[in-house]
Amino acid sequence: MNSEGEFSNIRGLLAEKIAGEITLSQNPGETLRKWRRNFGISQTELSNYLGISPSVISDYESGRRRSPGILIVSKIIDALLKIDELRGCNVLRAYESMFGDMVGLSAICSVCEYARPVTLAEFMAEIDATLICGSTDVQINGYTIIDSIKAILELLPEQFYKIYGRSTARALIFTGVTRGRSPLVAIRVSNLKPGAVILQGIEAERVDPVAVKIARVENIPLLTTLLSPEELSSSLSRI
């Protein structure tokens, strides 16, 4: 970390991001599970820190217990962050290096790193995606959901690489797409290439032929999904 102040700022921004995803999710329990796994913390370890039964965490995550209120969510998030601090801030450091000045940008809707890689075939099945070109035999280590319009208006060229997180072997999911040309052009001129690109809210036959051509030239699997951004987040939390 660069300084204690910047450390605290990243911690606060990350806590706000997690809280926002959980409270706004259509399935808060699944989103809670996703973040607990992102931190590499077991249900037992989390419950021990909070002084509650592991079954309480399990019930929240499975939906057997009514969704936790903001007070409980805040306590859980604080516990995740404090356990990480006791372990040496490995997750917090990763998020700082991942999107230090990217945190808080409204163009970045969600960033997730998987504890283990999944195949693109598994990934696309969860979000009911249609493959336009490329192979599904690709390993995905995480994903970033990006508001395509806000990215065009807000994301600076030097910030673009931040969307790749800890690994370029990830799925970049662009929401609010009309034809899909702009995201692919941005990727074309960048030195970094993702494991896959998914265009949200557009049918496969409506994707700009130029976007498809770029994907083929760059050997990047290109897919579409008609799930809403909220449905995407909920579905991806199950992986």
Query: What is the general shape?
Result: globular
Unreliable stretches covering 5 or more consecutive residues:
1-6
> What top-tier CATH class of the largest domain fits best?
Alpha Beta
Helix content: 40-55%
Radius of gyration: 18 Å
Number of domains: 2
Beta-strand residue percentage: 15-25%
- What topology, given as strand order, has the largest sheet? 1-3-4-5-6-2
The CATH homologous superfamily name of the largest domain equals: HprK N-terminal domain-like
CATH topology of the largest domain: Udp-n-acetylmuramoylalanyl-d-glutamate--2,6- Diaminopimelate Ligase, Chain: A, domain 1
How does CATH name the architecture of the largest domain? 3-Layer(aba) Sandwich
Distance between the termini: 30 Å
Number of helical runs?
Answer: 11
- Structural class call reads alpha/beta
How do the SSEs run, as a string of H and E? Answer: HHHHHHEHEEHEHEHEH
The biggest sheet, with number of strands, parallel, antiparallel or mixed sense and barrel status, is: 6 strands, mixed
What average pLDDT do the residues reach? 86
User: Strand tally, please?
Assistant: 6
